[in-house]
# Entry
Amino acid sequence: MSSYPRVTAKTEKLRENIDTAIRECKEAGIRVAGVIKGFHGIKEFLPVYLESNLNELASSRIEQLKRARDMGWTGGLMLVRVPMISEAEDVVTITDTSLNSETAVLEALNQAALKLTPNKPHKVILMADLGDLREGFWDKEEMISTAVRVEKEMPGLHLAGVGTNIGCYGALVPTKEKTEELIPIAREIEERIGRKLEIVSGGASTSYMRLTDGDMPEGVNHLRLGENILLARDNEVYHGHSTEPMNQNIFTLQAEVIEVKDKPSYPQGQIHVDAFGHTPYYEDRGIRKRALVAVGRVDIGDFNDIFPKMEGVEILGGSSDHTILDVQQVFDAGGEIKVGDILEFDLNYGSLVFLTGSENVHFVLE
Ligand SMILES: *Cc1c(COP(=O)(O)O)cnc(C)c1O
# Structure
């Protein structure tokens, strides 16, 4: 079997990022769930997480959590997407905790737990939608009464706490004020059920900015962190917020050059639509040196999500299975790229999640 395209991961740097997250969160009284969905929880990269000091792994996909368990993980497992009713039995047998927002799902989980894990209640966290408009209770009275109902009427479940997610769909910034809205909801529920909640889960990687700025609202004691451990890129690129001391560029795509030729930069003939039914813009820059590498949109998702490491290499676009590069500047500068060469690219969250889900790609921990 050929071994390209390939994604490599730097074990030591990833381990350091996990340790940094655990340490920095601990100083603020926060526990970390290590979210593995950004790399599809693939078996090749999971060992770094399995051997870490995390005590909880999380994913939106139950298959990935099961894989972690099958590979020997004995710590906690958290499902961070609201469960499908059709997966309720797997949720209670495979995971320890799930994030929830619907009574019908909670009832299904309760029934499944009573039947399959009668001695081990399934833990649930109720999600509050604070304006991001993805999952969570919008009506906070409904959230509080549902919490009371879980506590009093669903013996198969244990109400572990409340949570929120800020910045995934609605592109909200997790400011201190926004995050803080979760706290009175938690306190009200505690008053109504007459005990403390164990978990107030304040958000995902973007919420890490509250931690490093030292203004995480009092009461938040849990974060679910994927991107800021794996890539530590988005808070810097999108929010201008340093992600130091996290390591970046842990993952590298290596792809093989299969053609290098001088060609016009403007398509010759009548222009209509490309392989995806779109009509892109082509700039006419005359005859240019171009290279094809054997990796494509089915592997990457979006050509804007990979970043050539070699100076002078520019991504023009591509199709399902090809990426087209303008490499004229490499040659102008006295360099060379030839068929059979391996070119390297840095990744972001989008390309990492696509590449690790592609069965054409090979994975190497180094
Ligand atoms: C994906 C997800 C996370 C982790 O997000 P990152 O931005 O990768 O840290 C946390 N919580 C929920 C509910 C998620 O869906």
In short: The longest strand covers residues 251-264. The mean pLDDT is 96.
